[in-house]
Amino acid sequence: MTQFKIDKTLLLDDEPFHMLSGSIHYFRVPREDWYHSLFNLKALGFNTVETYIPWNYHEPLEGQFEFEGEKDIQHFVKLAEEVGLYVIIRPSPYICAEWEFGGLPAWLLNDKNMKIRTSDQTFINKVDRYYKALFSILTPLQIDHQGPILAMQIENEYGSFGEDKTYLNMIKDLMTKYGTTVPLFTSDGGWAQTLRAGSMADKNILPTANFGSRTEQNFKNLQDYHQEFQKDWPLICMEFWDGWFNRWGDNIIKRDSKDLAEEVKTVITNGHINLYMFHGGTNFGFWNGCSARGTIDLPQVTSYDYDAPLDEMGNPTQKYYDLQQMIKETLPNVKQAKPLVKDFMKVENIKLTDKVSLFNILEDISEKSYSNYPQTMEEVSDGLGYMVYRTSLQRDSNIEKFRIVDARDRVKMYVDSKHVYTAYQQEIGEAFEVELEKEQPKIDILVENMGRVNYGYKLLSNTQRKGIGQGLMQDLHFVQGYEQFNIQFDKLKLEHFKSSWEEDTPAFYRYEFNLSEVNNTHIDVSDFNKGVVLVNGFNIGRYWEIGPTVSLYISKAFLKEGHNEIIIFDTEGKYSSEINLIDKPKLINIEGEI
């Protein structure tokens, strides 16, 4: 039986083990492409892959567990083993990771008294049920069960959130209750305050540090902290940030490749590393996270390229080759190989086939509910995407004053299907006036959840409940009586396009094309405004004309030989009579297209 131990160094069957690890998030890479990314990690000369496990991805509705298909974590781990990689798993209830709500399920927000990421027993009970399902998969894959999993994380950067040691011990106890036998660790910022708050008193649990520069200082801080335990533990950077994520409306963030290689050399010379990210991938669907900056939330873009050694599509960048050369020189006994490289295709002038306005098919493609006062998205369904709130009014004058109170994140109001108002973040709640033509006008309010925050104090705040919280005010009173439509894109059918389209309304645009051969590509969405793209029914993510990305990556995993269909949902009703598939990403900056 193989054993992995943490002593003065890392030991694999009592032999020193130099951990060279890279992060690949299986949930951001199509299953068909997992092998490509894992092979390229091994080809770099690395021996381990690390991944988070996002709770909300596997339990989108309370009690509904999903571990098959694209969510088959068991297959990912076994595939890594086949490639020749060991595995580090970070299954903590919270993962951050620039992922929707840091991996926490939105349905947790329905209990307004629950304190997440604390020793609140109500929260722990929810984790317990999830861990029972999750660890039935993970436990047999541990190294001492003849699997590839070397170690697991208890919580993620908890020292940047709280200092509830009872909570940390409760999570550890749940892991051991469900069969965890491999070494456990915590990971926090590389300075004393976060290390003390996020680590545990248990001398069997290794504190590790996360950083992306100043390696010598951060490793010294970690070593000094180890001394408080009278331990001479190995130094591990569990997240070495080799790039960064991007937000809507900001320019792409880049890091110099040579600088990275030199800094990584310092890490592997003095300790062990996990590159975050090795391959970032894509925030498909509505899974992107959101940064919190004071009162403003800053949603992250669909691409999770991260300026990593593998780009969003999984191909090696200059960083990859510079790292590979540095490793060859620094660790000459490490085996390396030529990386796999994907090809890309262009398909031009794909014609618009059909178009239809959302409001004309809303009943057919939504989960409908009724309430006297509006319910939030997570109260009605999975808390993701879009919801329409419909009500009616009694007109008292031709021009009426309105407010939409306590709504997130972006609202668009329509009176008898005519657009009258759009607001985002801090504008929401301000008064606005609307001219009413009918005595009893129909009101539709389209609300978009643009992503819950994934880091910081707002995890405990009420601001992460999405949809409409309090309601629509007419004059000085709240309007009552709502139909709520939680839009389900998988209910959209070809026959729905027989309905009509109206200008300046949220709408679906359908494009058809045939392929004799399938390859990877990107869709150019620069002629559209804001929305999502469905490729053969799969939601490949959001776009927004403000950039910095105005294209979306389409893996060949989502295409097929013969007939293909792309449907674009644009909330502003902007469209093009034809679209193009392009062979590289399309970006903009403040100076224009690049």
Automatic annotation (TrEMBL):
One of its GO terms (biological process) is carbohydrate metabolic process. Signal peptide: none annotated. The keyword DNA-binding does not apply. Gene3D superfamilies: Galactose-binding domain-like, Glycosidases. Keywords: Glycosidase, Hydrolase. Residues 506-564 form the Beta-galactosidase galactose-binding domain. Residues 374-487 form the Beta-galactosidase 1-like first all-beta domain. The active site is at E157, E239. SUPFAM superfamilies: (Trans)glycosidases (SSF51445), Galactose-binding domain-like (SSF49785). Residues 10-329 form the Glycoside hydrolase 35 catalytic domain. Its EC number is 3.2.1.23. Belongs to the glycosyl hydrolase 35 family. This is Glycosyl hydrolase. It comes from Mammaliicoccus stepanovicii. The gene is bga.
